[in-house]
Every structure is written in C-alpha cells, then in structure tokens.
From TrEMBL:
Domain annotation HTH deoR-type: ranges: 1-46
Name assigned to this protein: DeoR family transcriptional regulator
PANTHER family, per database record: DEOXYRIBOSE OPERON REPRESSOR (PTHR30363:SF8), HTH-TYPE TRANSCRIPTIONAL REGULATOR SRLR-RELATED (PTHR30363)
Keyword Metal-binding: no
Pfam families per record: DeoRC, HTH_DeoR
Species of provenance: Labrys miyagiensis
Taxonomic lineage of the native organism: Bacteria, Pseudomonadati, Pseudomonadota, Alphaproteobacteria, Hyphomicrobiales
InterPro entries per UniProt: Carb_Metab_HTH_regulators (IPR050313), DeoR-like_C (IPR014036), DeoR_HTH (IPR001034), NagB/RpiA_transferase-like (IPR037171)
Length: 232
C-alpha cells in the first residue's frame, strides 16, 4: 500500500482492496490501526503525511464520487497518447488517471499547469515534464500566468487532453475557475488534436467559466467511450 501511494498519492478503498486481495473492511481496519502511515478521506486512502499538509484540493479529490467513471474515461483517452509526441494535460480530478495510464516505456513530452498532475508526470521515467508557473490557485491546485503562454507558443503540441466541469450542447465546455479557461483556450488553439475527457455526469451541466464550443474538440471521451463531433 505504501508503494502504491508513493506512485498514485491517493487510492479508492475498493481499488485498494482489489490490489491487496482482501476485503474493503480489512483495508478500513488496517488504515484505522495505522494512523501514523495512512489516512481515510471520503472513500479514499492517502498517506498520513499528505493528509496533514496537502491543500484543500486533495480533499475534493478524495470526496469525488465519480472516480471510477473518470478512470474509465481516461482508459479510453489513453489510446490517443503516442510515443515521441508532445501532449498537454489539463488540471482537475479526471486527468490524473490519464497520467497513471501512460505506459512507462513511452518517451513523450507533457505540458501541464496543475501541481497534482505534475507530481504524477515526474514519476514516469520516460516523460519530459514542462510545468507552467505563475500564481498558485489552491482551489484547483493549478497555476496561472500569461507569461507562460510564451512557453506554449514555443512548443509543438500533438494532442491536448482537456477537462471540464460542464459540457452542454448549446453552451459548450465550461469550468469552475476563470483562470483555467484562459490556459485551456490557449492550449486548444495550439494543439493539432483536442479531446474533452469527462465523466458522463458533466454532460448537460453549465458552470460559470466558458472556454470552448464543443465543436472545437475532435471527440468527447467519457466512460462510455468516444463520441466524434460534427465539424460543421
């Protein structure tokens, strides 16, 4: 469990039980008996040291009730990652699963602007990570700063994986935070391929920060698979 948390930072209770070959009740008991090593938050397990010092973002991740659907969506999206290419990985609680699914033998360059995403990318042996900096926003564990757009302009992006808090047929893709929208829009404009990776609970929802019409994406990918969009 310690080794798994070192790689993943946070693991759902059911996934931990499957990993260890024991019941969920056994995992709960062992976590409770070892508070100096583990913490249990909202159905997820994380290292006690992380629970003590991490930003509120980790708590929102732990409380997420759609983790399984997000991971399944990312399993479909992972087929869009190809060796020797450059990808953009958006912030949020979904695409951390995509990073986890990148094969260890892939040599790729990954651009990100979220702390949790960067932490996972740097654990992959074949990945060159480019982290966009600026002002840190604890609510989404992400950074913003227009100066880093110069970095994006200088990099050729093959595939951009975007997350969203809402995807509505009429109003498009939206997110919770306005600073995210600006980064998303820039990445979309520079990438050859763009994929919106969301769980189906986001379909039909509208959040306050608009960042793209759905037609700009090559496809929307959910736990149910890929939906290609009409470009007209």
């Amino acid at each position: 469990m310690i080794a798994a948390l070192d790689r993943r930072r946070i693991i759902h209770l059911s996934e931990a039980a499957q990993l260890l070959g024991v019941s969920e009740m056994t995992v709960r008991r062992d976590v409770a008996q070892n508070p100096e090593q583990f913490a249990f938050l909202g159905g997820h397990i994380l290292a006690a040291s992380h629970a003590e010092r991490d930003v509120p973002y980790e708590l929102s991740t732990a409380a997420d009730s759609h983790a399984a659907a997000k991971r399944e969506a990312c399993a479909h999206a992972a087929s869009k990652i190809r060796p020797d290419e450059t990808i953009f990985v958006d912030c949020g609680t979904t695409l951390v699963h995509l990073v986890d699914l990148i094969p260890d033998n892939y040599q790729i360059t990954a651009i990100c602007y979220a702390m949790n995403v960067a932490q996972l990318l740097t654990k992959k042996p074949g990945i060159t990570t480019i982290m966009l900096g600026g002002v840190y926003h604890p609510a989404s564990a992400s950074f913003s700063g227009t100066r880093d757009f110069d970095i994006l302009d200088s990099v050729g992006i093959n595939v951009a994986f975007l997350s969203a808090a809402g995807a509505d047929a009429k109003r498009g893709a939206t997110c919770e935070h306005f600073h995210e929208a600006e980064v998303k829009q820039k990445a979309i404009s520079l990438s050859r391929e763009n994929y919106l990776v969301i769980d189906s609970s986001k379909i039909g929802k509208i959040k306050r920060a608009f960042f793209a019409d759905l037609k700009v994406f090559d496809a929307i990918i959910t736990e149910h698979g890929e939906t290609k969009l009409d470009s007209d």
